[in-house]
């Protein structure tokens, strides 16, 4: 995983251009309504989404690629970027909110649940998390070798899990689910090409009293 993203950021740099995902604005509205201040962004990349978030909140971004972090520090000087893996978070504090864009689906089932657990631990009680993931309605679903139920090697050396709504909800059983829906988004690449992707999003609230381990 780390080698794949290191190589890709080195060769393509700002892979998806400068503009943030439309889901960022949905998250900003949600976080503002709930008067949040400190936000964690797992899988921050080169700062495409953190730059918009950091206009409103204090933002820390977690990123596994050292090259992406170098790009991010130039692109978004306001966010604090931390070189770490979402599978092994060692954070000194908890956050009021988490924005996690298109990261969870890049992992196998055991790792996905570990990421969700790590995010749970990183959230203050009653904190809010906003996740987006690939939908089972996306055109890449069922492309390539199926390595686990619903998970495909849809590109060379790259897997993705394609979530049904129930599957997504099942990943967050230890949270209070606030909202769950669908998004269609255009991805614009650095080479001026673009594609449309089908996403699902989920908004959850941490309630440590129902956390079971």
Mean pLDDT across all amino acids: 93
Shape designation: globular
Number of DSSP helical runs: 6
| Order of strands across the main sheet | 3-2-1-4-5-10-9
Radius of gyration from the alpha-carbon trace, in angstroms: 16 Å
Proportion in helices: 25-40%
- Counted up, domains total 1
What's the CATH C level?
A: Alpha Beta
The fraction of residues assigned to DSSP E strands is 25-35%
Low-pLDDT runs of 5+ residues are 209-213
CATH superfamily: Vaccinia Virus protein VP39
How many strands appear in the DSSP assignment? 10
CATH architectural arrangement: 3-Layer(aba) Sandwich
GO molecular function, one term: methyltransferase activity
Pfam families: Methyltransf_25
Keywords: Methyltransferase, Transferase
Protein name: Class I SAM-dependent methyltransferase
Provide a quick synopsis of the model:
The chain is an alpha/beta fold. The protein has six helices and ten strands.
How do the helices and strands line up, and which of them pair or pack?
Elements: H1 2-12, H2 22-33, E1 38-42, H3 50-53, E2 58-63, H4 66-75, E3 80-83, E4 95-101, H5 109-122, E5 123-134, E6 145-148, E7 151-155, E8 158-161, H6 165-170, E9 175-188, E10 194-206
Parallel strand pairs: 1-2, 1-4, 2-3, 4-5
Antiparallel strand pairs: 5-10, 6-7, 7-8, 9-10
């Amino acid at each position: 995983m780390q080698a794949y993203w290191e190589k890709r950021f080195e060769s393509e740099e700002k892979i998806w251009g400068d503009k943030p995902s439309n889901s960022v604005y949905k998250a900003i509205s949600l976080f503002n309504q709930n008067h949040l201040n400190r936000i964690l962004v797992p899988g921050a990349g080169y700062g495409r989404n953190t730059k918009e978030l950091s206009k409103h909140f204090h933002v820390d971004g977690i990123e596994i690629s050292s090259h992406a972090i170098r790009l991010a520090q130039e692109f978004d000087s306001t966010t604090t970027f931390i070189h770490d893996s979402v599978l092994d978070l060692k954070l000194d504090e908890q956050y009021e909110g988490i924005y996690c864009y298109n990261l969870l689906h890049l992992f196998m089932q055991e790792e996905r649940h570990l990421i969700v657990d790590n995010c749970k631990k990183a959230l203050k009680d009653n904190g809010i998390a906003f996740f987006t993931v690939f939908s089972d309605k996306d055109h890449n679903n069922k492309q390539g070798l199926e390595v686990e139920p619903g998970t495909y090697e849809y590109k060379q050396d790259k897997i993705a899990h394609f979530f049904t709504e129930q599957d997504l909800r099942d990943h967050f059983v230890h949270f209070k689910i606030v909202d769950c829906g669908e998004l269609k988004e255009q991805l614009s690449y650095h080479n001026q090409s673009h594609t449309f992707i089908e996403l699902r999003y989920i908004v959850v609230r941490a309630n440590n009293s129902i956390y079971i381990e």
